[in-house]
Amino acid sequence: MKLIILETYSQASEWAAKYIRNRIVQFGPGPGRFFTLGLPTGLPRDHPESYHSFMWNNFFKHIDISPENVHIMDGNAPDLQAECDAFEEKIKAAGGIELFVGGIGPDGHVAFNEPGSSLVSRTRVKTLAVDTILANARFFDGDLSKVPTMALTVGVGTVMDAREVMILITGAHKAFALYKAIEEGVNHMWTVSAFQQHPNTVFVCDEDATLELRVKTVKYFKGLMLVHNKLVEPLYSMKETGAERSQSKKPYSD
């Protein structure tokens, strides 16, 4: 497990972006190997708060990717569980997930795997907790009646099958969740803690998120930053030859 500690939110975001870029170049994805682990909530596709709209407006339309290489589940499918099962099959057909990138809630949930979720769960339909609905109300003008009460989500087991997992944790309101994630044992009430048992997990956080950690924990991981920064320096380019990229084809693991 790696814990990357940067001073500010923007620095943590920049480090994560550089790391993802290098991993994409190293992996060399091609047709049929692009996935978005979308978490639709039953909103119309063109709704401004739908996951489909969010990802296209904030990411996909700014990069070189064909629509057919993006896989986002249909939250309005007639058979939602069949939609989830098909998504799992698509992941397998693509060779599995190379790098999963996600964030967490203050209660330590990953995707919509909220407290109490099975740590071996697969992509499924998930009823949302009251706290999640309340947190999402800000996207719907505070009107709780407009907030979706269910979602389709990848399971913890689905994420655990990824070859690498990156979790972004920033802000003082996520500090207790980070503490639960790395300093206590694995617990299904804090689903992010499952990644303690993943062979290649990278937690990226800012200083505020470390407020609940032991001083010696923070000092230990900060002492490794000279090594960890080699993962993002230099930045790789798609123009490099395959031989150049193969020198660091896989990141080292702890």
Mind sketching the topology for me?
Blueprint: E1 2-6, H1 9-27, H2 51-58, H3 80-93, E2 100-103, E3 124-127, H4 130-136, E4 150-153, H5 156-160, E5 165-169, H6 175-182, E6 201-206, H7 215-222, H8 225-228, H9 242-246
Parallel strand pairs: 1-6, 2-5, 5-6
Antiparallel strand pairs: 3-4
What's the gist of this structure?
The chain has a single domain, classed as Rossmann fold, CATH 3.40.50.1360.
Polypeptide structure, described:
With about 250 residues, the chain is α/β, with parallel strands linked by helices. The protein has a single domain, classed as Rossmann fold, CATH 3.40.50. The chain has nine helices and six strands; from the N terminus they run E-H-H-H-E-E-H-E-H-E-H-E-H-H-H. It has helices at about 10-25, 50-60, 80-95, 130-135, 155-160, 175-180, 215-220, 225-230, 240-245; strands spanning about 1-5, 100-105, 125, 150-155, 165-170, 200-205. It has a four-stranded parallel β-sheet with strand order 1-6-5-2. A two-stranded antiparallel ribbon has the order 3-4. Strand 5, helix 6 (about 175-180) and strand 6 (about 200-205) form a beta-alpha-beta unit. The longest helix has 19 residues, at about 10-25. The protein is globular and about 50 Å long. The mean pLDDT is about 85.
Widest β-sheet, arrangement of strands:
1-6-5-2
Shape: globular
Output the number of helix runs.
9
How many runs of DSSP E, i.e. beta strands? Answer: 6
* Second-tier CATH architecture: 3-Layer(aba) Sandwich
Question: Distance N terminus to C terminus?
Answer: 6 Å
Helix and strand composition category: alpha/beta
Question: What's the SSE pattern?
Answer: EHHHEEHEHEHEHHH
Catalytic activity: alpha-D-glucosamine 6-phosphate + H2O = beta-D-fructose 6-phosphate + NH4(+)
Family: Belongs to the glucosamine/galactosamine-6-phosphate isomerase family.
Domain Glucosamine/galactosamine-6-phosphate isomerase: 43-198
Subunit structure: Homohexamer.
